[in-house]
Amino acid sequence: xxxxxxxxxxxxxxxxxxxxxxxxxxxxxxxxxxxxxxxxxxxxxxxxxxxxxxxxxxxxxxxxxxxxxxxxxxxxxxxxxxxxxxxxxxxxxxxxxxxxxxxxxxxxxxxxxxxxxxxxxxxxxxxxxxxxxxxxxxxxxxxxxxxxxxxxxxxxxxxxxxxxxxxxxxxxxxxxxxxxxxxxxxxxxxxxxxxxxxxxxxxxxxxxxxxxxxxxxxxxxxxxxxxxxxxxxxxxxxxxxxxxxxxxxxxxxxxxxxxxxxxxxxxxxxxxxxxxxxxxxxxxxxxxxxxxxxx
Length: 295
Ligand SMILES: Nc1ncnc2c1ncn2[C@@H]1O[C@H](COP(=O)(O)OP(=O)(O)OP(=O)(O)O)[C@@H](O)[C@H]1O
Hints:
By secondary structure, the protein is α+β, with helices and mostly antiparallel strands. It is 28% helix and 35% strand. The strands form 2 sheets. Strands 5, 6, 7, 8, 9, 10, 11, 12, 13, 14 and 15 form an 11-stranded antiparallel beta sheet that branches. It has a 4-stranded parallel beta sheet with strand order 2-1-3-4, with helices on both faces. It is elongated and about 60 Å long. It starts with a strand and ends in a 6-residue tail after the last strand. Residues 199-209 have low confidence and may be disordered. The structure holds adenosine-5'-triphosphate (ATP). Adenosine-5'-triphosphate binds at residues 9-12, 39-42, 44, 64-68, 71, 91-93.
């Protein structure tokens, strides 16, 4: 019989993880031998997920908030055997589930396990993995201020707008970006790397290539930009970067950044300050159960 490991953070989601663990056990019992694991603190989800790879499990279900999901991904990425992955979001933010179109309702997220999967890209920055977005600059601190409603409405762009607003008040930095097909060097207010092509996701919402196109989608907001938020909004929605001198857009498989000052990196919501940083993509790296296509 196939083997599933259910990794639960019992403290997330108003401590309902254990209840969902029981639901999962019932649902999966006909197909899998289910191994329920509860985390007791930081690092446990990584360790359990790693163990699932080494013991050739067929499925890992991550039950918890973004922190738990992120720890789980750390354990799975770049292992020789990688089980399929399902996420049952129990956090307050659940960026991961939003970015990958996993139902935000825990019961619905459980329902879809066993249905469709898709291969998703995983990003890597130095020794760490990301699934969604990296923001570089003074701005990342401001990102915590983005409301959940904003995130639901406009996804990754919520970060961008908050970032742009915050950038107005902050110093710029000299950034040097080298990528596979070019380079950028100059005074910058904000640099964003998105694994998902948010622009395309507005234009061709059901296209599956969005999360597994093998590229990072990069946006440099240059210093001295006329920070007309409405204009930048329009630009981003239409994807017309070519016509906007204040935003440089490129896509790349490998990106390296350096700066002349210490900078913060916000990686999927966690802060890190480690430069130079090298970003790569692990294309179609994890097989994920996901929700209905948005149409
Ligand atoms: N039993 C535990 N008690 C306390 N902390 C734990 C326990 N198990 C895991 N953790 C830690 O809690 C961190 C945050 O958990 P997680 O993101 O799942 O939930 P959350 O804080 O409710 O989510 P969100 O931030 O989206 O609201 C994890 O990164 C993990 O290190």
